[in-house]
Amino acid sequence: MTDSSFYKLQNGNTNDLIVAFSAATVPKGKFSFSSVLATSRSNVLYLNCPHNSWYINKLDEDEADFEYYKNIIKNVIEKKNITHTTFFGGSMGAYGALLYGALFNADVIHCFGLEYELFTPHSNSKKYFITKPDIIVPDLSHFLASSKFKSLNLFYGERCIVDLYQSSLIPAMDRINKYPLRDLTHSIPPSLIERFDIAEALDNKDLHSKVLNFFHVGDSINEKKHIIYRVVYKAYVELESGYSSQLTINQLKASIANTDSCSLKFLCMAYLGLLLERTSPLKSLELLNNVKSNSPHISEIYPSLIRLGRISSIDYSLEISEFALQFHKPMQLDLQIDILYQHSLNLFRKKKFEEVIEPALEFHRYRKNHNHIKYMLAISFLELNDYESALKYSPALEVLKETPMYGGLLKQLNGVDE
Fold this sequence. Notes:
Elements: E1 7-10, E2 16-21, E3 43-47, H1 66-79, E4 84-90, H2 92-103, E5 108-112, H3 124-128, H4 140-146, E6 151-157, H5 161-167, E7 176-181, H6 189-195, H7 198-203, H8 207-214, H9 226-241, H10 246-258, H11 262-275, H12 281-294, H13 302-309, H14 314-327, H15 338-349, H16 353-366, H17 371-383, H18 387-392, H19 398-401, H20 406-413
Parallel strand pairs: 2-3, 2-4, 4-5, 5-6, 6-7
Antiparallel strand pairs: 1-3
């Protein structure tokens, strides 16, 4: 086992220790936060779990497990005469921070996007954790109840349905503070890095106050009826699984009427609208437009709303897709990447071929095998007389072979004048 594959110690000039846990899919020998914490005055222990087992088990003999990480942390605390510990991490790293922070009676634990209960449907642990039959998942409630940690701060994006649901599973304790951050999704640390110096905040022991100064806490923090969290999570699971039940639809309607949280009200309304898209498109359009007007940052609504907008007209749908891209810039792993496709389709149908290129290329960058986007790119490039690009984006030339320009195009590419 190569120790540098799983941990790295950065020496500081204090008796403070920051234990920074990496998120999932970080390669061996690499560590989350290693660049942003490079200037820290504290000792920083970076940990990684490149086999994505949430810091609790190993898949092969040469990989780290619970005892390995526990011993590494213990040795650093003893050798460095540590008097103050901060455990810190996001997503999979948040689980590690909570587990080991509780084990070592941390002074402060900061968790961003924590999965308190592993392997729930459509969670990251369900997606990335390669399980083994003999895996033993720790009882976090036992760790928390028996630990003497001083403070646990749980930050989660109010728009991440899985994290929102997971927050409702965490027991209430005086030492545990929950903060749903309005308009944020699962990946919170990149937003922190953009706004303030994380190393300085951790050194000064005021990360908690920095986060609250730069981000708004959503009003779902006031919702005590945990069944509403379960309802919106169930709706999310059904939507991701491609079906909907009348029971869930009825529960969403009841939740909209009964919640005291505007954030949860419009999340429930969004998922009700999404579940009704196929069976009641006009009602779905009404609900999603309501969400757009009152909570435009709920990006999940836009692919469906853009499609439904075509019921009225392409112009109306185009207006929605342009609006959506003002609020949301889809990235590779974003479920809302379809916004780019829908916007490209609107522009294509309006014959705005020059404007099609940018969003269509961005979508194609992440969805290489999407034939319809290739079709739109090929035709758009043809209309712009960019024949070489048209051929590049035409799958197996089938699109171009059906166009009257095909013969002339081949002559031009072969250097023969028509």
